[in-house]
Amino acid sequence: MFPLTTGQPTGTGSLISFLVPLIIMFAVFYFLLIRPQKKKQQTRNNMLNALQKGDKIVTIGGLHGKILELADDTVVLLVNDATKLTFDRSAISHRVNTESEG
């Protein structure tokens, strides 16, 4: 009348076959998207923290300037001989390599 059971639950195989693709998909997202973004953010934070007076930088908007003053969250740039502009530190895109300018 009742079917014979082998003592194993019938849903275990389907649960494993459901979880394995999800774990693999999470691993792919982590190694292709999350981890590289964290590394890029860490190198940007290191660059922003290493800025010093006199460094030549480029802002996110493309403005080139030389750092005159640094505060915790702001930077004063000398754009030409007389123009000083204040920017957020986060608006700095990158530092210009002054060694190649000769």
TrEMBL record:
Keywords annotated in UniProt = Cell membrane, Membrane, Protein transport, Translocation, Transmembrane, Transmembrane helix, Transport
Keyword Transcription assigned to the entry: answer is no
Q: Where in the cell is it found?
A: Cell membrane
BP GO terms, sorted = protein transport
- TM region positions: 12-34
Q: How does it sit in the membrane?
A: Single-pass membrane protein
Predominant location category: membrane
* Keyword set includes Membrane: yes
| GO-annotated cellular components | plasma membrane
Q: Which family does it belong to?
A: Belongs to the YajC family.
NCBIfam families xref list = yajC (TIGR00739)
The protein, known as: Preprotein translocase subunit YajC
The species this protein belongs to is Paenibacillus apis
